[in-house]
Amino acid sequence: MHYLDYAATTPVPPEAAEVMVRVLTRDYGNPSAQYGLGREAHSLVERSRAVLGQALGCRPEALYFTSCGTEGDNWAIRAALHQNRRVGRHIVTTAVEHSAVLQCVKRLEQEGYTVTYVKPDAAGRIAADRVAAAVREDTALVSVMLVNNETGVRFPVEEIAQLLQGRAALLHTDAVQGFLKAPFTAKSLGADFITLSAHKVGGPKGVGALYAGGRAKPPLPLLYGGGQEAGARPGTEATAQIAGFAAAVRLRLERREETSRHLADCKAYALERLGTIPDLVFVGESDAPHILSVSLPGYPSQNIVSDLDARGVCVSAGSACHRGRASHVLTAMGLERKTAAGTIRVSFGPETTLEDIDALVQALLDHKNTRFPML
């Protein structure tokens, strides 16, 4: 199998999996329990929080563990609006955010909030000054992702934070695709809320983290219960997942330079090799080292994905086709219909080999040679 869908999820390294097995089978105490096994579990959670704080360059106390990026996005948005409830009921976001943000703000529109959606240009870029120009006196929140999950375009969150100085609006960024791949710290970004997810960086599914710093106050809980996570997120901590998250982050930190070079080499090789395929189009101006979006205009992406799967190559349908419609990202970019419908996403990780990329190129060539394009 040639796995080239690391933007969707990543394998858990053996070192991180071993940590999780140990916690599940030996160090399985409830972190709220007062005896030794519980105290050790609590200590493990706090040590894991410190690892994430080191990676993000922030105080561990500013990090709250979540179940996933979707929860983190929803929590950050709701928390920011509650904190700025006296500022107003206006939200600024982009038309190309992850569904975890877009579906949340669409729900908020039904609750009486107004939302401005800033569109990208044809290359998938979002200009900071256009985001700032959409901010009003009653804007409570600006939410702009760091790296787009379909195109790999990096958005100017740092510049947006600078332009928001002196304004009441709080800034949230979904950094799920950028964490440990696009270099940043909480301070350098300048965002008040930052969403992270474990399974994009070699950690397990079912755990993430929310940074609430800058001007953010401790976030309003989405749930109420036993008072875990400093009273902000009740419920028994997913100790094994948290430990696995921290172990994966620790590995990524230790191998950061090596991984960065490897991803850059993979992307450069993929650009060169994919560029040899007749009529292939590169979609968006990807800055991320691990994501490329490409199209075979006239060849439906779902067919491409299915055919490549049969040939042992795993990629995503970048158009996320549903009943013949292109994804909201490609639609917002204004891509020509055939190009949007033929878009796939290729993404790399530490385990990617050049042979994986060669297999992808050959599979795409075979697909073109054995399938008829749509009219």
Secondary structure topology:
Blueprint: E1 2-3, H1 14-25, H2 36-56, E2 63-66, H3 69-83, E3 90-94, H4 99-110, E4 114-118, H5 128-134, E5 139-143, H6 157-163, E6 170-174, H7 186-189, E7 193-197, E8 208-212, H8 239-254, H9 256-274, E9 281-282, E10 291-295, H10 301-310, E11 313-314, H11 328-333, H12 337-341, E12 343-347, H13 354-370
Parallel strand pairs: 1-11, 3-4, 3-5, 5-6, 6-7
Antiparallel strand pairs: 2-8, 7-8, 9-10, 10-12
Helix pairs in contact: 1-8, 2-8, 3-4, 5-6, 9-13
Structure description:
This protein is α/β, with parallel strands linked by helices. The chain folds into two domains: 14-253, Aspartate Aminotransferase, domain 2; 256-370, Aspartate Aminotransferase, domain 1, CATH 3.90.1150. It is built from 13 helices and twelve strands. It has helices at 14-25, 36-56, 69-83, 99-110, 128-134, 157-163, 186-189, 239-254, 256-274, 301-310, 328-333, 337-341, 354-370, and strands at 2-3, 63-66, 90-94, 114-118, 139-143, 170-174, 193-197, 208-212, 281-282, 291-295, 313-314, 343-347. The strands form three sheets. Strands 2-8-7-6-5-3-4 form a seven-stranded mixed sheet, sandwiched between helices. Mean pLDDT is 96; it is low at 319-323.
Would you kindly provide a brief summary of this structure?
The chain is an alpha/beta fold and about 375 residues long. It is built from 13 helices and 12 strands.
Approximately what portion of the residues adopt beta-strand conformation? 5-15%
Strand order in the largest sheet: 2-8-7-6-5-3-4
N-to-C SSE series? EHHEHEHEHEHEHEEHHEEHEHHEH
Helix content range: 40-55%
Radius of gyration: 21 Å
CATH structural fold name of the largest domain:
Aspartate Aminotransferase, domain 2
Count every beta strand, where a strand is a DSSP E run of 2 or more residues.
12
Shape: globular
